Amino acid sequence: MEREVLLPIPACCNLSLQARRRDRENSMANGHNTVNTINSGSGSLSREERRRRRRATQKYRTAHATRERVRVEAFNLAFAELRKLLPTLPPDKKLSKIEILRLAICYIAYLNHVLEA
To answer: What is the phi-psi region of residue 46: left when phi exceeds 0, alpha when psi lies from -120 to 50, beta otherwise?
Structure first.
């Protein structure tokens, strides 16, 4: 099965997607063939296989886990800040994230109604 792929670019080159497209278009205009056959017996790895191998390294997994932990902490802090602004009885009642969002929607609608009245 044949499929079109981008020209191979070394990992050290940090080209934008637009630059890659431009290079591919220039290559096709010059008569180079960018359509490759995926061959399981070849020594070179496809882009997806290289990506999988890179993601399988301990260094990558550790860095990814750290980034995800920071993202989730920021997400939870944002919900905590939003929760502080919403009136509920009792005020210390534990709410799920979806309950916080629904309550915020209702409270904003109420405040909007108060402003219009």
So the answer is: beta
Q: Is the previous residue joined to 90 through a cis bond, with omega within 30 degrees of 0? A: yes
What pLDDT sits at residue 81? 95
Distance CA 34, CA 80 (A): 51
Backbone φ and ψ of 4, nearest 5°: -80, 135
Q: Are residues 40 and 63 in the same domain?
A: no
pLDDT band at 46 (very low <50, low <70, confident <90, very high): very high
Q: Range of 14's domain?
A: 1-44
CATH code assigned at 96 = 4.10.280.10
In a domain, 31, yes or no: yes
Answer yes or no: is 50 within a domain.
no
Give the residue with greater pLDDT, 71 vs 91: 71
Confidence (pLDDT) at 33: 47
